[in-house]
């Protein structure tokens, strides 16, 4: 229980640092180091870098899709929505002639289309009769070797015959009893 609280506090600290501390540091440094139109240009480049990193992040998932031939880790709805969003922001940046909006969304459009193509390629691939989307990982562990020689002794199994009146065998045992007399 205590470990979970510590982990939550570390996560909260990281979120606060990234959302407040990093943002404040960017504002502070651009106010001190840059003046006038140069300040807007530096902030534009910083925003462009963050926007491109958002679109590049799914590359690891794309690699996993190619390795496993399974699209279970890449939801199509999210991919489609991100690609559509990139197209809309690109059009907005293009109409305003804003390089800082248009350029990262070109990368977003290309990566979104690439993800959808990957989804189309790997969504119906069958592995051992099971589609890759629903295949569960299989672990096979071999502890012993299989015997190479089979004993050829005869096995005799006595199956009692059924008495039609009361559902019992002629020897008095119930047929529902899972034990069967066998002799080896």
Automatic annotation (TrEMBL):
It holds the Pfam family MtN3_slv. It comes from the Eukaryota. GO terms for molecular function: sugar transmembrane transporter activity. The chain crosses the membrane at residues 12-30, 42-61, 73-95, 101-122. It is a multi-pass membrane protein. Residues 159-184 are annotated as: Disordered. It is found in: Cell membrane. The keyword Mitochondrion does not apply. GO terms for cellular component: plasma membrane. Belongs to the SWEET sugar transporter family. This is Uncharacterized protein. It comes from Anisodus acutangulus.
């Amino acid at each position: 229980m205590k470990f979970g609280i510590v982990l939550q506090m570390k996560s909260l600290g990281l979120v606060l640092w990234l959302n407040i501390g990093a943002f404040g540091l960017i504002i502070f440094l651009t106010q001190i180091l840059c003046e006038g139109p140069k300040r807007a240009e530096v902030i534009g480049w910083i925003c462009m870098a963050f926007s491109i990193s958002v679109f590049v992040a799914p590359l690891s998932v794309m690699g996993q899709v190619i390795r496993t031939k399974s699209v279970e880790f890449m939801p199509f709805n999210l991919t489609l929505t991100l690609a559509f969003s990139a197209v809309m922001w690109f059009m907005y940046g293009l109409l305003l002639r804003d390089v800082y909006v248009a350029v990262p969304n070109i990368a977003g459009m290309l990566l979104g289309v690439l993800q959808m193509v990957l989804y189309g390629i790997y969504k119906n691939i069958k592995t051992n009769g099971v589609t890759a989307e629903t295949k569960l990982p299989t672990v096979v562990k071999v502890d012993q070797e299989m015997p190479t020689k089979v004993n050829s002794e005869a096995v005799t199994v006595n199956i009692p015959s059924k008495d039609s009146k009361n559902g019992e065998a002629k020897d008095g045992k119930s047929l529902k009893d899972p034990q069967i007399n066998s002799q080896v």
